[in-house]
Amino acid sequence: MSDSLPSLYAAARGLWTLTWRRVFSRKLLVQNTFLFLFYPVIIGYFSYFGRDESEAFFKGGIISIHVWLVVPISVLNYFGHMIRGELREDNFSYLFTRPVSRFRLYLLKYLTVMVALQIILFINGMVYWGVGAFLNIPELKHFIGTLLAVQFLEVIAYGALAGCLGLITRKYVFAGLIYGLIVEFGMGRIPTNINLLSINRHLNGFISQHTSIVEYFSLGVATREDLWLSILVLPLGTAFVLGIGGLLFTYREYLHTSELQDSA
């Protein structure tokens, strides 16, 4: 026990360093610049010139572009690559010699990527807040608070799924897009209990608390019972998928497979 805690701390510190080194790589630095500046400026531009409907343009643009498109794709990119990228660069070889199980290494890597992306998206949310304040958007504080809460849950839930897809196939981007079309934009819109499988369905429940968004997208307003169900289902589903990912990383050999030589 006395040896496992220092080893766990050392592994977490090493994974955190690797994660931030990847986050600030040239490729992701360009992507994050777009995340911070391009989308808020574009949404703010169209909201500014659509003065009569500036609130609808601003809030609707953030939900349709940022929440439904940018965040899921960013999560798929960060988490789908989180294990294969490190294995391809042989960054895990030293960690595998430490008295830390692969299951714990997987969870630690998930946590470090999750925290890094949460920080990036929080800054992005503050940029949206600044743009909204410039445009004098009504109920801005409440809306940005909801945005931060929704993207926080979105990263946690989609991150677990993307990490699992990255372990199942090197074509995790294609697999993620197929999943999104079938489950999120297919099953999630079916008005039966099968839509409980859709993460987006639960997130929309929190978004629907804003009247202007409900009218803009013709969303159904979630009841208090629906919100509590989402609060229950999202953590349980995330834990279940994380467990599958941890088991895959534990019992499936990735170090010397030929597919690691191919680009993801």
Report what the structure shows.
The protein is an all-alpha fold. It has one domain. 76% of the residues lie in helices and 0% in strands. It contains eleven helices and no strands. The chain has helices spanning 4-23, 26-49, 54-80, 82-88, 93-96, 102-134, 140-168, 172-184, 199-207, 211-217, 224-251. The longest helix is centred in the middle third of the chain and has 33 residues, at 102-134. The chain is globular, with a radius of gyration of 20 Å. The two termini are 38 Å apart. 34% of the residues are buried. The model is unreliable at 260-264 (pLDDT under 50).
Largest sheet: none
- List unreliable stretches of 5+ residues: 260-264
Assembly type: single chain
Helix residue percentage: over 70%
Number of strands: 0
Beta-strand proportion:
under 5%
- The helix/strand class is mainly alpha
List the main descriptive attributes of the protein structure presented here:
11 helices; 264 residues; globular; disordered C terminus; mainly alpha
